[in-house]
Amino acid sequence: MTIHENGHLGKPNAEKEEPPPLMKTWNRIYIAIALYTCALIVVLYVLTVALNR
Amino acid sequence: MHLADWIVIILYFTYVTVEGFRYGKKNRNIDDYFRGKRSLHWWAVGLSVMATQASAITYIGTTGQAHDAGMSFIQIYLPQPIVMIVLCMTFVPFFYRADIFTAYEYLEKRFDAKTRSLTSFLFLLSRGLAVSLVLYAPSIILAVIFGWSEVFTVIVMGASTILYTTVGGNKAVIMIDAKQMILMFAGIFVALFLFISQFPSQYSIMDAVHLAGLEGKWNNIDLSLDPTKSYTLLSGMLGGFFLALSYFGCDQSQVQRYLTGKSLTDNRLSLVFNAFLKVPMQFLILAMGVFMFVSYHFVKPPLNFNTDYHRTLTEQAGSRYAELERQYNTAFLERKNAALAVKQARNNGSPTQLQAAEVRYLQTEKKFLELKNANHSLLESVLGKKPSSEVNYIFPSFIVQYAPTGILGIILAVIFAAAMSSFSSEINALASATVIDFYKRYFRNSASEAHYLRVSRGATLFWGIFATTAACFAGQLGSVIEAVNKVGSYFYGPILGVFLLAFLVKRCSGTGAFWGLLAGQAAVLAVAQYSSISYLYYNVVGATVVLALGTAIGYWPKELNTQN
After folding, report:
1. In chain A, which residues have their Cβ closer than 8 Å to the Cβ of B500?
2. pTM confidence score
3. CB–CB of A8 and B502 under 8 A?
């Protein structure tokens, strides 16, 4: 995803971005965050069902 | 309060003030002052983002809310990690490459000056009206609990923050925020330890978890689809998503944090840091409230946490109130014994005995709550109006009664840190929008850096004094403050809509953005006035209307559109 000069989003371009210090690509970090969020929701739901009477 | 507590508090205020002057010496221009010359590391920016969001009322009120209503508030925070992904992919790289000072500055590049000015004005209006509450809200609680003057507390917090923010600028704000956030994290664990230390010997954390579960406090996830319910997974993920995206993406008090990172990578990492830490932090703060609820089974909670109400009832309903307190004391002892019996039954391992003990406990809890309701009714009849919620007084009431010397000072320093970290970020942001979007844009667009630095410090001082003064008088404004708080929450959705138009709708011009923004604002006000849906959905309504109308205008015939 790239941002055009007048500010709107467009197709990806070839400009290379600095990679993150972990996991090599930013997309992998985003996927990790998304999976982490799903895991949080599942864990919280399990706690709700298990601990509430 | 003992000498050790005062020493802790004085050391805290001295430290933040000295730090402000230390960073202030290096400011030469507004790039230093508002963006720290883009030199900050991701961890400092990340902690500052977190500290800016977590005010004293987050710390005090959320704990009290969990004590009363359980963990359901956590659902509002669940979409924040996803919001961080969206920001890292869109807002952050664009703002970084656009080399801007305010989020609204770029709206002129994308649309036109009137859209920029309107959006920035709405930010100044909403944030300017709400910023005083950051100081006022904790001051009234501390006044009631400790007997301090509200004005004195407001002035102490306000003056110290104004000093280090005006002198030090954004870099000082961020670095001090980072340390204040570390103190807040420490405070969470100190408070948890304090609550658990009030349990009887042999009463374990799992016993406490079980007891809280009997009262339904572990209501982390509610799958209801009812739109009028405030805190459900649906309202959290949908409404909370739009609220968080608008707050972190379009509110200058947050955007200004991640304009200061030394690289795009640092800016992104600061938000990734928040993505992983925010929900667990909020979980712990809410869990504090639940464990405080259990502690109050073994140390007696006051019938009225608000000592002003206790005084009023003692003076104006003496005999009725005394009888209510006598019954309340008895009910507390019965509930305490029933809670211990549940623990005993768990240890014995007999399901039948456990069930009987749980039923008995719930009966005593029901009796206890009936007496609380009777107190509420008595108070209403004496006051002649509905009493305000006591949820913000529960946590301070506990710490003033049960925190040992020194620990009380630490927790008070944490409360001050939470208030001041939010206040500093907000007045710095208000100053940047004032100077960059209005003063420099319309009144003096070419002057020396020394001039702009002086004006920026002056603007910070102005907003700080304005907010502190408003906070001193806020008590006399009563329901106006409530109205201001609600009005502030109406702006987020439409402002987000403008930024989404800017990013996503190529054909949208300044005309579409401008009229879309006004229509979105009107739609939110109409929904708030005429419907009963949860306030979390206002952001969805506002953003959607702006997007829809802005897009529609973008596809109208050319002659109806004007480009800048």
Report:
1. none
2. 0.89
3. yes
